[in-house]
Amino acid sequence: MLETRKLYNLDKFEPYQVVSWIGILIVAIVTVNLLNAIFINLIYFFEQGNVEQSIIYLVFLLILVIYLFLYIYINQFVKKIYISVLFTIFFSILFSLTKNSITEMFLPLSFETFVYILVLGFLLLFLFVFIVEKVANERIIISVLFFSAAFAVIVISFILLFLIGEAFPIVEQFGFFNFLLGVRWESENPPLEYGAIPLIWATMVTAFGGIIISVPISLAVAIFIAEIAPYRVQLLVKPIVELLAGIPSVVIGFFGLLILVPFLQEPLPGFYFLPSGSSSFAGMLILAIMALPTITSVAEDAISAVPRSYKEGSLAVGATNWQTISRVTVPTAISGITAAIILGMGRAIGETMAVMMVMGNTPIITFNIFEGMQAITGTLAVEMAEAGFGTTHYHALFGLAAILLVITLGINFLSVVIIDHMKISYRKKPNDTPFSHFMEKNSSIILISMFILTLGIVWLFLSATLSPIGAISVYMIIGLIIVAKRKIYDNLQAKTKQYFAYSLIMFAVFIMLLVVFWVISQIFFGGLPAISLDFLTNNPVGTKGGIFPVIIGTILLVIGTILFAMPIGVSAAIYLVEYQKEGRLTKIIRTGFDLLNGTPSIVYGLFGYAFFVLYLNWGISLLAGQITLGLMILPTVLRTTEEALKSVPQTVREGSLALGATKWQTIRRVVLPPAFPGVLTGAILGIGRAAGETAPILFTAAVFFNPGNEIPSSLFDPVYALPYHLYQLTAYAATKQLRYGTALVLLVLVAMFYLIAIIIRNYYRKRIQW
Amino acid sequence: MEKDLHKNGYVIETHDLNLWYGSKQALMDINIKIQRNKVTALIGPSGCGKSTLLRCFNRLNDLIPECKITGEVFFNGKNIYNGSSDIVNIRKNNGMVFQKPNPFPKSIYENVAYGPQTHMIRKKKELDKIVETTLKKAALWEEVNDRLHESALGLSGGQQQRLCIARALSVEPEVILMDEPCSALDPIATGKIENLINELKENYTVVIVTHNMQQAARVSDYAGFMYLGKLIEFDETLKIFENPSNELTENYITGRFG
User: How does pLDDT run across A16-62, given as a tens digit for each residue?
Assistant: First the structure.
């Protein structure tokens, strides 16, 4: 006979429910940890041979288990209360018999064990909730899911507060405006000064330069993939772009330092270009390479999303393909394209390892982009290890991290505002905000002043970099091009213009392919000689030897990262998609995850260092690295899980509910299984990213020289990791073979993960056809 | 000029036209002749190939990669599937109005001005004139002349469709191809467009695909009945509806299937 279950009205969010949810969550966590603690005590006393205590704890354990069993399987609420009361009385009596206090019960546990218990309890909780159906009372489920979702908001606020807390002393020790507006950064030789302007300047200039180089090429490639390339070519070019996205930043930095910088110095034998290749310009090129895949994929998505009917409408009037692309498709997709550019910008600003390795690292303010500069991220990576805990230098670095976070979050916020503004302009009513009115009335003045401003700024850069004569010649060339366009190009036939535009686009695609090929081939052919069984299975000896423990270390880090990020990310996604109606609450939660997504990896690393390593006193440890990396890939897991869940049609859910299944049963049995491949893909993408990231483990988990203890024996030991190892090898005098070999192994490892993810995605896409 | 030479000929003619989507054949041996300055309707049940045939006339089927064609389609005596034919010109001369109105996400003015602009007409005065003329021809001018620079997406369905007709007219085509233009519209808007079609045939040739038989009867001079990719019967509308020669046609007209 089917039992009738009480259905809760779970669709409306009522604030008072949060109290009951908090209560339930606390009870759940306490129960699980109580179980763990009793079990540990039992083992402890058993090993000690203390029969009396052992029996007592055994009885505790049995009673607790019986209680849980009864609670779960008895459905009437009143009976549940009876049992709970009974249990509490019984337990208290027994407990007084042991003559222990509550705290003493936890005494046999070292801090390490306690952490282990917490971790275990955390995992068990999720396991329970997801697997044991009887326990899966809708209320418990929703609490767990809700808190996973709220986790992001909590974490990002915590990170922000913590950072500001660590940075705040700089205000009294050095002065707020001295720090923010100071033009000299000198952290080694007295007189020590911590002015942030040179670093902010370097970050913004290099990022802008990188974006300016990258945007035309990315857009061209995006247009090529979306509108011009035949299907087979699309299938080839898209993965190449994704491949470029997957290359770890330390590998690109490696390429930059060992190949690009010398190339800039001496492009052809005997022909010198820059006195020192390490410069802001090199940084711009590297950032362009890194931002390219981001901008390309997002822009390509936006362009593909333009309804086909617009294209047909344009062609039906006799427009050429290129006219359609330039006058209808791209303008329609402009908000998505803008989002792509801003995302690329955020990526460029937050990039650490690659820029640090090629920028020369001299904190000066200059308009000459061929000189070395020092970005905020580079400063953090290089100087954090040297700064003593609690010194002014330490606080100044955290101040920098706070500034960086504010800039990147500000850009993310700006992108949302701009895109909303753009979307409005194509709605039914024309733009009716005071801002747009202001812009319309003063449009000519604004345009002219912006134009003059741009001209002036570009002049400053050109004349410093090339010399005033060089700047004048550049302007003249630009003027000539504009004149040529008006006189010649504009009067060409539409077909000819298309030919011209297509050639430019093909050229851009060619450049992108060339870059990818150059990077990968250099590393492949440079590293291949180093690969041997010895290399892969031996331990390092100083700066020579093998990299076996390094590979193991990376694998350990990755496992922990996934165990941390998956439960939280998947639960949060389930909550957002299945339980919560779109509204203010989901907006806040999504903003939390977006902010986490926009946070640069070095900021995660710094937070992990200050909080886990120093504040919690874990020291440089595997666990600290795992949690830091886990936080970093959390938004990725959330996003991919959300997509996977949303791809399950609503009709399937309705069919299940119509049979009388509860919401959670529907999710577990009908929605999650087909969504699983998508979730898995997200997990593997997260793994790929975690394996390649350096900045989060820079100060939290990784070491380079730890003979005798290369493979950690506990979660609190430091660990070797491939990206960090590669970074150190480039800094120390290691052989070319070793360096390239490590780079190749890292590249292959990451590529393998991405390949697996793509295979799974394609395989399941064919099997599940709705 | 070609137009004069073929003033008394058929403006569009097909010769043993066959079309495949991949391995599925969608059109079989179509031989049809479209008369100048008349309204020709293509009728038939869903999936019989009417829209596919229409899209052959302006080579919009080229957009579909798996599409293969044998046979010939003549526009004013020239085969448009000839390698040397100018697609852009063909499409300019055969304007198309789609089933679902698809104005660009631009202003009303820009939507109509788009066509001339792609054909190198730049001067604002000329464009203004073209916009006004075509909007008047499309019977939309009265309703929108005070808000030409507002978004076209703010118009009602019927207005959007008339805007699309104006857009098609703006490049001065000879033929207007209409693919079920009223199926997404309410009866009043439909009536307006049907009146419009009647006025248009004085200066243009209209080919209209419709699954609404009554509409075909109201609006067209000639009708072609298609079934499963074949052109079953083609004759004056009056004859098709009152005295069809083919039994299949009669069954469809009388509603025995459809």
Answer: 566 666 666 666 666 666 676 777 777 777 777 777 777 777 877 78
Cβ atoms A556, A126 nearer than 8 A? no
Rounded Cα–Cα distance for residues A655 and A634 (Å): 32
Which residues of chain A lie closer than 8 angstroms to B63, CB-CB? 311-312, 315
Does A310 sit within 8 Å of B91, measured CB to CB? no
Q: List chain B residues with CB under 8 Å of A316.
A: 58, 60, 91, 95-96, 98, 168
Q: Give the number of beta-carbon pairs within 8 Å between A and B.
A: 88
**B168 lies in a domain?**
yes
What is residue A382's DSSP assignment?
A: H
Q: Residues A401, A164: contact at Cβ < 8 Å?
A: no
Note whether residue B244 is domain-resident.
yes
C-alpha span between B52 and B63 (Å, rounded): 12
Contacts of B58 in chain A (CB under 8 A): 316
* Contact assignment for B95 to A314 by CB distance below 8 Å: no
Percent of chain A at pLDDT above 90? 15
Model confidence pLDDT, tens digit, residues A309-328: 999 999 999 899 999 999 99
Q: Give B61 to chain A, closest Cα distance, Å.
A: 10
d(CA A680, CA A694): 24
Distances (CA, A) of A224 to A219, A297, A339, A653, A749: 8, 12, 19, 39, 30
Asked if B170 lies within 8 A of A317 by C-beta distance, the reply is yes
Which residues on A lie below 8 Å from B98 (Cβ)?
Answer: 309, 312-313, 316
| Chain B residue with minimum CA distance to A422 | B105
Q: Do B102 and A332 touch (CB under 8 A)?
A: no
Interhelix angle for A548-574 vs A622-646, to 10°?
Answer: 40
Number of domains in chain B: 1
Res B25: pLDDT: 93
Q: Is A271 helix (H, G, I), strand (E, B) or coil?
A: strand
Cα–Cα distances in Å, from A639 out to A376, A593, A696?
29, 9, 21
Residue of B nearest to A230 (CA): B65
Q: What is the DSSP letter of B32?
A: -
CA distance B55 to chain A (A): 10
User: Do the domain assignments include residue B3?
Assistant: no
CATH of the domain at B32: 3.40.50.300
Residue B151: which of A319, A327, A430 has the nearest Cβ? A430
Q: CB pairs under 8 A, 24+ apart, for A428-436?
A: A428/B151, A428/B153, A428/B154, A429/B154, A430/B150, A430/B151
- Distance separating alpha carbons of residues B162 and A210, to the nearest angstrom: 47
In the DSSP assignment, the letter for residue A260 is I
Burial class (CB in 10 A: 0-12, 13-18, 19+), A9: exposed
Give A-chain residues touching B123 at CB under 8 angstroms. Answer: none
pLDDT of A718-730, one tens digit each?
888 889 988 888 8
Q: Between chains, do B153 and A230 touch, taking CB under 8 Å as contact?
A: no
* CB contact set of B38 (below 8 Å; sequence gap of 6+): B201, B205, B206, B221, B222
Distances (CA, A) of A388 to A158, A716, B71: 23, 22, 83
CA distances from A214 to A294, A305, A326, A340, A465 (A): 10, 22, 19, 11, 20
Identify whether B211 is part of a domain: yes
| Beta partners for residue A639, in sequence order | none
pLDDT tens-place string over residues A433-472 = 666 667 667 777 888 888 889 888 888 888 888 888 888 8
Instruction: Check A318 against B91: CB less than 8 A apart.
Output: yes
Among candidates B91, B93, B153 on the partner chain, residue whose Cβ is nearest the Cβ of A428:
B153
Q: Residue B69 is inside which H or E element, if any? A: strand B67-75
- Domain extent at residue B179: 10-253
The shortest CB-CB distance from A316 to any of B60, B89, B105 is to B60
